[in-house]
Design brief:
Blueprint (H helix, E strand, L loop, with lengths): L1 H32 L3 H6 L2 H57 L4 E11 L11 H13 L4 E4 L2 E2 L6 E4 L3 E4 L2 E3 L3 E6 L2 H8 L6 H7 L3 E12 L16
Antiparallel strand pairs: 1-7, 1-8, 2-3, 2-7, 4-5, 5-6
């Protein structure tokens, strides 16, 4: 908003300068055009030289004003372009920073992994460690954004078991089914979980846990809704 206001002010200044320049040129050339040619013919040589010198001076002053105005216009234009480029760079950096911090809702291609509790013994139950391992595998495979049951995973997110009855993500209670969304290169994300023998999906299935993987061209991951504050950490001097 500030940059837009500055551009409007600069545009107004340029407009005023154009108007003043036009008036100066108009007055100067009007003066020249209204010069009485007959009176020039009857002037003494010295008087004629004086008059011509005066007209020449006015003409040179007009050209000087024109050059000065053009120079100012170019200077303002460069300023506008520089501000625009700086503004675009700053805006891009802000968006990237907010994406990294999870403060923007994002969308893109990726995968959806669903884990569901199985009511057959303790081995079919999903625990916090299973979700943490999945998140780490997805990050290693290049995931750019991850969520669990619409809870955005950020730098200081935590996933913990609560009394072996439910799981807490970012302080919010979530229950089965656990829907984990990840945005990134589909091929990398899928292969990062589908390795044979020791792959995440095979390991979960071997433990009797219900897991499915779905590929999608358009996944939406909501922004992190909590506050990002640092109480003890500060910039090093």
């Amino acid at each position: 908003m500030k940059i837009k206001k500055e551009k409007i002010i600069i545009s107004i200044i340029i407009g005023i300068m154009f108007f003043i320049l036009t008036m100066v040129i108009f007055i100067q050339f009007k003066t020249i055009s209204h010069t009485d040619i007959n009176s020039l013919e009857t002037m003494q040589e010295s008087e004629l030289r004086t008059e011509i010198t005066g007209l020449k001076t006015k003409y040179e002053e007009t050209l000087s004003k024109l050059e000065e105005t053009n120079s100012k216009i170019n200077e303002y234009q460069e300023t506008i372009n520089t501000e625009k480029q700086a503004s675009e760079v700053l805006q891009e950096e802000l968006i990237n920073s907010r994406n990294i911090l999870g403060k923007n809702t994002v969308q893109g291609e990726g995968i959806i992994v669903t884990l569901t509790d199985v009511e057959v013994g303790k081995y079919g139950k999903i625990y916090a460690k299973d979700l943490i391992q999945l998140v780490n595998n997805l990050k290693a495979a290049g995931a750019e954004a991850i969520s669990i049951n619409d809870q955005r995973i950020i730098l200081n997110s935590y996933v913990v078991d609560i009394n072996s009855t439910y799981i807490s993500v970012n302080g919010e209670r979530i229950v089965s089914p656990y829907i984990v969304k990840a945005i990134g290169d589909i091929t990398y994300l899928e292969s990062g979980l589908s390795q044979k023998q020791y792959g995440y999906i095979d390991t979960m299935k071997n433990e009797g846990k219900d897991i499915t993987l779905e590929k999608s061209d358009n996944i939406v991951i909501n922004a992190y809704s909590g506050n990002l504050t640092f109480k003890y950490a500060k910039e090093a001097e």
